[in-house]
User: Fold this.
Amino acid sequence: MKAHYISEDKFPIEIDQNIFILGNYFFNLFLIVGNRHSALFEVGISATVDTVINQLELLDINPDFIISSHPHSDHITGLPGLAKRYPKARIVSAAGAKEFIEHPKAGPLLIKEDKFMSKSLANLKIKPGRPSLEKIPNLDESLVIDNKQSIDLGRITLDLIKVEGHSPGNLIGVLNSKRILFCSDSLGFHFPGRGYLPLFFTHADLYLSTLTFIKEFNPSIVCPAHQGPLSGKAAVTGIQESLDITLNTIKNIKQSTLSDEMLARDIFEQNYKDEFALYTADNIKNCAALIVKRAKEAEINFS
Assistant:
């Protein structure tokens, strides 16, 4: 991790004209600044809120749109703090996100995970600016994207597209004019220098379709929500590597003679380290079990 680590004092980072990465190495938020409006894609966690606010103040920007990419704990728990600080900003989410976080089982897990992530950052000397989340985010007044919607920021248009495979209520963002794509977790979890862990938690085949869309878009810069963006040749090779690893993961699981429990245990033990250790072990064990389940449900034929 050390070779690829970007220290917090390097943020915000301008990756293209008027396009910035905010947050920190582990939790990336992306600011797109147009002539009339600005949009913040990703909201991070409660522990990153004050850092992001400070970075926005440094840039002298009050975002007009705050976009939650999907309702997993590391992509939604920063929303209450940002929404309170920027009450005039329009909150944007995808269809299905509100229902996901309001499920009776989801709320306590979101709060538990946010607390653990805050402590994990503190252990890495990245001190949270506020206590962790106490209640689930409120998406009642958000602009809900059912399929696709374009936001004109002034001389630059951000297309928000609902995609499937990783999470309910999942959005990616596209700047066609700059060939920049904000993919959140749809490329998988990136371990710089070591590859990817596929994250097809809702549907493996649809996750592959989303990866194919990303590949065919051929972005000059692709921006996952963790561990920084990939540009130029690194973007091309990274997307292909993610696609290849995803296919191999599905194939190996479908063709394995091991039990589901053993397969999930192996995935957990191989991946629960470095950047992934910021999350609770129970969360990652559940993720590993979902990967096995969805791989076995996949309709792709390897014969």
The first strand starts at residue 13 and ends at 16. The chain has nine helices and 15 strands. Residues 8-297 form a domain with the Metallo-beta-lactamase; Chain A fold (CATH 3.60.15.10). The mean pLDDT is 96.
